[in-house]
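$ run holo --ligand "adenosine-5'-triphosphate" --emit tokens
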Amino acid sequence: MLEVRDLTVQYGGIQALNRISITVPAGETVILIGANGAGKSSLINAIIGMVPIRSGQILLDGKDLTQVHAADRAACRIGYSPEGRRVFPTMTVQDNVLAGAARLGRAEQARAYERLAGMFPMLAQRAGDLAGLLSGGQQQVVAIARAMSAGPRLLLLDEPFLGLAPVWIRQISDAIRQFRAEGVTVLMTEQMALPALKVATRGYVMRGGVVLRQGGIEELRGAALAEEYL
Ligand code: ATP
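-- output --
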């Protein structure tokens, strides 16, 4: 479903991704594991068009996204949650979440919010509060719910578990499983691989802009352990 072929991303003289290739089969949850600077965010950001690519292809169901303007990629039903709890602090929790669902009608938005509040009860309890008043973990949930709000078919989550308490990790993991059960394809990144390995179906270990290993979860658990990503 998503295929990245020979992708190179460069920032000035720094090569963040060096001819990297990954495949994310439809309906799977794929994790990119790697330390700081491995290139995980660069890969996600290249998929949504936030960083320019130097060469390579990003195919979503055979369509080359590198030929689609970044502003038009949301119409391809790609949901994206950035690293680092980005919320609009002076907007309410509900408006933050629904900012991701602007293309839906009002009734659909209400249904989407209700569904997400079923996964994350905090969204019901704090719907009218300003997002800037929430804890870090709650803000992360808001950012992830925003990515999920428009009914994506591909969900990109950049470090969704970073620094979170177990209660939020559990809720986010359950939500990812629920989306997968509905056929949504997920690509997520993590430095702290353990919680992510519980939810992913396969993955890649990255370092210095290249893939070191790839495979099923059991193989990766061994590799990640040996390379101290757990
Ligand atoms: P992290 O977990 O810290 O986000 P990462 O695996 O996501 O790490 P990237 O953020 O993709 O890695 O960074 C890959 C490389 O590109 C690093 O060497 C980083 O310093 C460099 N880099 C990332 N963004 C920029 C930028 N905007 N300008 C210059 N160099 C950058």
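-- notes --
Residues 11, 14, 16, 34, 36-42, 83, 191 surround adenosine-5'-triphosphate (CB under 6 Å).
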